[in-house]
Amino acid sequence: MKYQLEISGKQYELLVKNQGPDLQLFFQGRPVQFDYEKIHDAGLYSLILNGRQYRVWIDQEASN
Predict the structure, then answer these.
(1) What does the pLDDT average to over 24-46?
(2) How far apart, in whole angstroms, are the C-alpha atoms of residue 23 and residue 29?
(3) Rounded CA separation 23/7 (Å)
(4) Rounded CA gap, 64 and 49, in Å?
(5) How distant, in Å, are the alpha carbons of 22, 29, 46 from that of 7?
(6) Confidence band for 41, pLDDT divided at 50, 70 and 90
(7) What radius of gyration do the chain's Cα atoms show?
(8) With the C-alpha atoms ordered 17, 41, 59, 61, is the resulting torsion angle positive or negative?
């Protein structure tokens, strides 16, 4: 599944692939190491990419 991200006003592409029970992430076409945890049912996650932590909000309406 592809997502469009906006970070500091710039657009990026994030590709999420299911590999059995695991997920793979590709940011701008490059694989990234990650971990995540759902913080709130409203779409708030804690995402760790390459050792840095980010808060991520997923807009469920925009992803449909």
Answers:
(1) 87
(2) 15
(3) 22
(4) 25
(5) 26, 16, 16
(6) confident
(7) 12
(8) positive
Two tokens, residue 27: 């940011």
> What six digits make up the tokens of 64?
């449909």
Q: Which helix (H) or strand (E) holds 41?
A: none
Place of tokens 């808060």: 55
AA letter at 45: Y
Is residue 62 very low, low, confident or very high in pLDDT (cuts 50, 70, 90)? low
Rounded-to-integer distance, Cα 18 and Cα 22, Å? 6
Closest CA to 27 of 59, 2, 60: 2
Give yes or no for residue 29 having a pLDDT over 90. yes
In this structure, what are the phi and psi dihedrals at residue 21, rounded to the nearest 5 degrees? -80, -5
